[in-house]
Amino acid sequence: MHGEQAARRGSRLDSFIRRLEAQRACLDWAVAAIDGVPGAVVELGLGNGRTYDHLRTRLDGARPIFAFDRHVAAHPACIPDAEHLILGDFRETVAPFAARHAGGIALVHADIGSGDEAATAALARWLGPALTPMLHAGAIVLSDQPLDIARAKPEPLPPDVRPGRYFILRAG
Amino acid sequence: MHGEQAARRGSRLDSFIRRLEAQRACLDWAVAAIDGVPGAVVELGLGNGRTYDHLRTRLDGARPIFAFDRHVAAHPACIPDAEHLILGDFRETVAPFAARHAGGIALVHADIGSGDEAATAALARWLGPALTPMLHAGAIVLSDQPLDIARAKPEPLPPDVRPGRYFILRAG
Q1: Minimal-distance CA residue of chain B relative to A15
Q2: Between A128 and which of A56, A102, A136, A147 could a Cys-Cys bridge form, CB atoms 3.0 to 4.6 Å apart?
Q3: What is the ipTM of this complex?
Q4: Any bridge partners for residue A42, and if so which?
Q5: How much of chain B is helix, strand and coil, in % rounded to 5?
Q6: What pLDDT score was predicted for residue B114?
Q7: Contact B20 A20 (CB under 8 A)
Q8: What is the largest CA-CA distance in chain B?
Q9: What pLDDT, in 10s, does the model give residues B4-33?
Q10: A114 vs A82: CA distance, rounded Å
């Protein structure tokens, strides 16, 4: 049947919805997974602010959230106050933050993929070691890119999330 | 419970997913609803091309789709060929198209809302009468704005679509 073939193939609207649902499933999983882990939350890549708002809503004020971006492009209702907004190049802002918050972070959500595959891969290679000092034991790192964090182990993805769409690590 | 309150309130990610799911439900409903109605399809507002690709996928080549926009901002894979892409201000392009395709259209999807509420309302007021001549008897008009089409009647929205999110008319 034509209709069944089309449904199997799926449209860009279908795959966009699937991608957002996977993102939400991973964020919800991560919020539950840090239940016994003290610390703040880091959103690397504020973007339009939707996932920041999701974490803020699900955490319901229980933890501070620090959001990083090069510049602010988020919806006005999704912009953190000055104390929780770290603007600039990640390669300049993450290391000083990690030193200031050594072991103080329970969850990092890093949504860093861009259209430029080589630049994304280089940023991901750099990011894992740069994040490591801020992670509390048991902290979750959720990323759209594979990250190399020495003392972390992969966690299985939530059901319905396609392998390779997201990567979840738990710090040892 | 905090978690339940947060889930009830919902994040911007939640509401974005809900809006896309409602859009998909309405498009799928419309594709089924024009089953016995001959004619082509009109996408008013190509945008990023996601709903155009959805209609193209679900219709699976069964009907031509004409897409209108001021200029092309769609993903390269979602840009119609020159014969099916009508560029320019709707107020200049729609009336000549309606004259050329009088009674030849089975489905119009009009996603015309912008941040400017007054401009959107004025465009919607103008659009209904301008579309009317192209509609085949039984044609469906699906829009994110209420439209005034003299010989059309409202259809109930698909389940799970909040009233006011979409508007569906069927031409008499």
Answers
A1: B50
A2: A147
A3: 0.90
A4: A66, A108
A5: 45, 20, 35
A6: 87
A7: yes
A8: 60
A9: 444 457 999 999 999 999 999 999 999 999
A10: 26
Relative orientation angle of helices A117-131 and A90-100, to the nearest 10 degrees:
10
Tokens of B113: 């809302």
Q: Is the CB of B14 less than 8 angstroms away from the CB of A2?
A: no
Tokens coding B99 = 């004259």
Residues 6 or more apart in contact with residue A143 via CB below 8 angstroms = A108, A109, A110, A111, A112, A124, A127, A166, A167, A168, A169
Tell me, what amino acid is at B19?
R
Q: Note the helical H segments in chain B.
A: 2-9, 12-33, 50-59, 90-100, 117-131
**Which of B3, B17, B23 faces A24 most closely, judged by CB atoms?**
B17
Contact, A51 vs A76, CB < 8 A?
Answer: no
The half-sphere exposure of A164 on its side-chain side, counting CA atoms within 13 A, is 0
Tens digits of residue pLDDT in B45-78: 999 999 999 999 999 999 999 999 999 999 999 9
